[in-house]
Amino acid sequence: MRKQLEVDLYSIVVLERNSPVAMHQQLNIQISQAVLSGRLPSGLRLPASRELATKLGISRTTVVTAFQQLIAEGYLESRVGAGTFVGSNLTKQILELAPLPGQARDSQKKLAYDLLSERGRALIDSRSYSLQQTPTAFMPNQPAYDKFPFDVWARILARKNRRPAYELLNYGNASGYPPLRRAIAAYLYHARGIKCDEEQVIVVTGAQMAVSLSAWILLNPGDGVMLEDPGYIAMRDMLSGFGARIVNVPVDRQGMDVSTGIATEPEARMALLAPSYQYPLGVTLSLPRRLELLAWANRAKAWIIEDDYASEFRFSGAPIAPMQTIDQNGRVIYVGTFSKVMFPSLRVGYLVVPPALVDAYAAAVHLLTRGVSTLTQAALAEFINKDHFSKHIRRMRLIYAERHEAMIEASHKNLEGLIDVSPAKTGMNVVGWLPKNGKDHGDDLVAVRKLNAHGILSAPMSVQYSVKQPRHGLLLGFGCSSVKETQYAVKKMARVLDSPSFSKTTL
Fold first, then answer.
1. In a designed cystine with 465, which of 264, 397, 470, 490 is the match (CB 3.0 to 4.6 A)?
2. pTM for the full predicted model
């Protein structure tokens, strides 16, 4: 028995002397895994620590340390005068943990899917999640990382982290760090014409969290929600996951066709839209339609979620005033984000909610997320209060106008007949419409795959629509590319789209 034991144990334990993992940890891991796999059954006596150390060529202290940890974790047990043994009755318990017949990984995945809630299934079935990618031409919604004042931001962060006040190390106010809420309220008043108290500002991790909180607070399963079509599919998928009944409302040159939306679902509970700069078409909701939507919300006791994600970057003239500024009845919930203005990984956004909803949102943030990092909020408050934020916006407005012009000029020069790029008035994206026939250019999914294979990232327009016959095109971001990079990438795009191999059959 002893000889068989030694063969089993010494064939199991293989220590790597150059590994960054300490010897006692390696021994711990390998013995515990052998117990869990059944290779070392319950009740089996292990060699004495001195003997095992000699056979493995390690110190006895290393073995004793590993054994002590394994005993503490329950894998081994020590019997006075008898030695160290594999824990009693573990074999039976371990067998109960083994996968049942037919429960391979794919089967387990299907079983897990079947056990999800309806909300969980809707989320996993969504089309909107993707792997992280390095920003490059023409990835949509990417800011100019090369122009952000990281030296200023780094100094502020370092100062906040060097000797942080104790209040910055705690969870903080669930609604947000009070100085940041005051700074946001002041900025919105001067830059966007929004009058609000700091209590109405709720700090969150971004626009999607803002809408998610709104769904938790304001919607019941089956409630109708009007969405722009085409529109941001992540919002559509998320609201579907909350059990909302999506009412897709077409968008034309005046923005969301409000009359059609109301006629389709007059009892809808919510409307979610970007009136100042619609995504992805870039149009502005006309004043008559804004007034019509506000009147409907007042009659129906419904809510309007106003996503104002990039309106600061209007190339000529002042930014379009938000709907919130003409709301007289507290029906508009305003959503803003720093992700597009600064950088996405900052993960700070905010809502301005009507006074009647302040307590509900504060409670929801407290229960669901506990809020945003207080240290980050403190740094952002200083960044805004010292006027770095406003200076950055003014500078970026000029830079994006220059990059937009370069995009349009290069497209007209190189892409004629291949893709029709429409100028924008705001933001960091333009839409390029594909021809309806010839060389399979009408399929934007094909175009996106082909361009991506050549290092040009874009988004297909067709997936933004809910209709069966969507319009095909490419959403092209120019924000993160310099003028020279844009000119080069447009020429490269022209070569790819004009290539004889550009067809469905080659993809």
1. 470
2. 0.82
**CATH class belonging to 391-506:** alpha beta
Nearest to 334 by CA among 314, 350, 358: 350
CATH class of 148-386: alpha beta
Question: What are the pLDDT digits (tens) for 48-67?
Answer: 999 999 989 999 999 999 99
Token representation of residue 304 = 């309007």
The C-alpha torsion from 385 through 388 and 394 to 399, rounded to 10°, is -150
Residues 311-334: tens digit of each pLDDT: 888 887 788 899 999 999 999 999
Instruction: In whole angstroms, give the CA distance from residue 181 to residue 392.
Output: 19
Whether 278 and 251 have beta carbons less than 8 Å apart is answered as yes
CATH label, 2-95, candidates 1.10.10.10, 3.30.2310.20, 3.40.50.300, 3.10.20.340: 1.10.10.10
Helices then strands, each counted (H, E), the chain: 18, 15
Please state the domain extents for the chain: 2-95, 148-386, 391-506
